[in-house]
Write a structure and sequence with these properties.
Elements lengths: L1 H24 L10 H19 L3 H7 L3 H24 L9 H25 L1
Helix pairs in contact: 1-2, 2-4, 2-5, 4-5
Amino acid sequence: MLFEILAHIGVPLAAVACLILLKASSREKPVGWENCNEMALELAILAIGSTGGIFANPNLIKHFGENAGVYGILLVLLDLFIAAIVVYRGRFRASDNPITAWRGIVDLFWGCLCVALTVEVIYKSY
């Protein structure tokens, strides 16, 4: 199970961390709370992309049976809905209000929730 989580989540998570680091190095300001929305969106996209791969896994197909495809689509839709919340939070922020640590943490919560849902599916199948 640990190998499956590492293969489906760990490697893409390392790629997201590299992407965030590359984006941060091209900006004038260092990474801060104002970047948490973007990081959360990257995590949500990671979870959406990982879901397709995990439902091709024979253990998940055996665990969920013939409905594995339906569960996979539902998980992608749930992750997509959470990603839409993240985009909405980033789009309609008041530009005159500074981004606080609390807002950044809430954004990161939504992104981590997407990844946690995908990991939970892998965990439950083993």
